Amino acid sequence: xxxxxxxxxxxxxxxxxxxxxNATGIINFAQGEFVMLGGMTAVTLNQFIPLPLAILAAVVIxxxxxxxxxxxxxxxxxxxxxxxxxxxxxxxxxxxRETALHIWGESVKALPYFTGSSGSSINLGGVYISSQILxxxxxxxxxxxxxxxxFNLTMLGRQMRACAANRDAARLCGIDAGNMVTLSFxxxxxxGALGGCIIxxxxxxxxxxxxxxxxxxxxxxxxxxxxxxxAAVGAGMILGILESFSIMxxxxxxxEAISIAILLAILFVKPSGIFGSAEAARxxxx
Amino acid sequence: xxxxxxxxxxxxxxxxxxxxTMHIRAxxxxxxxxxxxxxKTSLLKTVSGLIPARSGEILFDMKEIGKLPPEKIVFLGxxxxxxxxxxxxxxxVKENILLGAYPQYRKKRGDQVGDDxxxxxxxFPRLRExxxxxxxTLSGGEQQMLAIARALMARPKLIxxxxxxxxxxxxxxxxxxxxxTRLRREGNTVLLVEQNAKAALGIADRGYVxxxxxxxMEGTAEELLSNREVQRAYLGRDLDAEGTM
Lengths: 286, 245
Prior knowledge:
Chain A is an all-alpha fold and about 290 residues long. Chain A has helices at about 1-25, 30-45, 50-75, 80-105, 130-155, 155-165, 165-170, 175-205, 210-225, 230-250, 255-270, 280-285, and strands spanning about 120-125, 125-130. The longest helix of chain A has 27 residues, at about 175-205. In chain A, about 45% of the residues are buried. Helix content of chain B is about 40%, strand content about 25%. In chain B, the strands form 2 sheets. Chain B has a 6-stranded mixed β-sheet, sandwiched between helices. In chain B, strand 1 (about 1-10) and strand 2 (about 15-25) form a beta hairpin. The longest helix of chain B is centred in the last third of the chain and has 16 residues, at about 170-185. In chain B, about 45% of the residues are buried. Chains A and B meet through helix 6 and helix 7 of A and helix 2, helix 3 and helix 4 of B.
């Protein structure tokens, strides 16, 4: 179950990567920071307002931060190179992390369990699991379903896909491609923040907890095939379960190494990802 | 409807268009013919806003559009069917068509889109059959029809087509050209850029000949068709050989 829980959160981070990748062709290495920011903001706000409101507010605030980042750092660049974008997004991630250090210090924080307490568990067909795990998996599934509906059924979602498929053609249809990029940052900041809120009762949150998540999420995005959000869910589960099984055979310290090992293996052996097609990978810029 | 005056544009340091001047009246089919690399595509890209005009003026419906981005120009009623179709390949045929109607939705005329869709399906019955298929899986001719359909959904006053016959079988080309004439009968204005000069002049009212970024000749379609220079350079008639016969 721990594997599926972590798998869900990895998948959510990976989907955040994919949304921005699809809209712009860049990897936003500050994606993990959105997760951290969501969790941190929710913890702080929860001291003043009830939990559901705190989560909602945290998501909204992180979304605004996402839009702000795109408008300030990305929008005015005309056809930047991939390397330049990588460096810029890594810079943004450091900036957010250091700002978070100044605001919240080094203390480790957590939201309370959404229902019940950390000690209580639910009997699910003979298996006892923590209620928070159900929240994580349930909300994760909802996010995936909602995004699917958004991209396939709404005009706005279709516009974003059109920009991803062919930017010039989208502009010729009257779609403002620049706004779509801002929107993609907002959507992925929002789902990152929501992900941060739902896992932080289990995993806790600290100013620098975004980076490892970004690496795991990136691994999952690559494993599933960049840009493919459905595959990211499968790949997230694979990584989550592999990690939790690894504890049985390897010392716990190696758990973190698993994802890096997978990332390297995939990049060497099949850069298009296990679900991706080689043809699609050839068309990508890197 | 469209008036282009001394327009220059290009990519980076490369100047492709050199003082191009031309115009299109409402209800006309005007064609621009020229060899590969003459600047035909650049001209359409400049008018549609994909590349900015460096100097000169482009007036559409008496409004200066030379500095506007493409998304604004579409809203004014000037649509481009780009070279190589440029469809949204991973999306369905219907989604492609509906995206073309985006300016209609924005102008709060979304209620007309249903009727427009029916009209388009009437014009291209094949697209209705393939409505749920991904655009990238269509044949070349169907893709071209879809690209035209997508542009028409914005209800443009002027529709510009860049090499609609490119890479298509002769029979399919005939279909596409008959659609162009039908569009004109229904009151559309068409700017047609073609390498297939003979077919283009066959349906056009007037034409311009573009060579290395300059307009070197203009006239009615009949004039151009009977012009010896045009015949030799663009219609593939070998006059010297005919003279010796």
